[in-house]
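pinned: reference chain
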Amino acid sequence: MIYGFSLLFGVLSLVLGIPAARQLLRMREIDRNPASTHGQVASTKSAMGWLWAAGFGNQDRPLVTYTSPKGTEMVYEIVTSNMLPVKNYLTDQAIEIIYDKDFPGRAYAAPEKKAARQDLFGGLVALAFSIFLWIFGQATGMPF
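pinned: its structure tokens
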């Protein structure tokens, strides 16, 4: 039984950690040549529809509009890093957008960096707990 829980926490660590790590790596690339602007939430519902995405957790993907340095209006869809509940964004809410100066289409919402860090930390905690349960099971001689 304890090995089953260990396996579940191991899977949870992967589900939380891998998407968060990918987001943080993408944000790190953008932060090499960053610029900042403020965008506005244009829509708070997903373009994909709730039926298709409901099985994967988050179905709300807010759209943020911002202006590039050349004056072009850009649209950025906020995609969170995990399948846990999304932070609520309100229509017409102002959000800081960090983008690459050379490629203004490569951007992220500033609040998502903190969320990705929290998700990565949660994944690491779940992994540590999974390893602890497995070692505890082995040390006490529990059968598989």
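why pinned: The first helix runs from residue 2 to 30. The mean pLDDT is 84.
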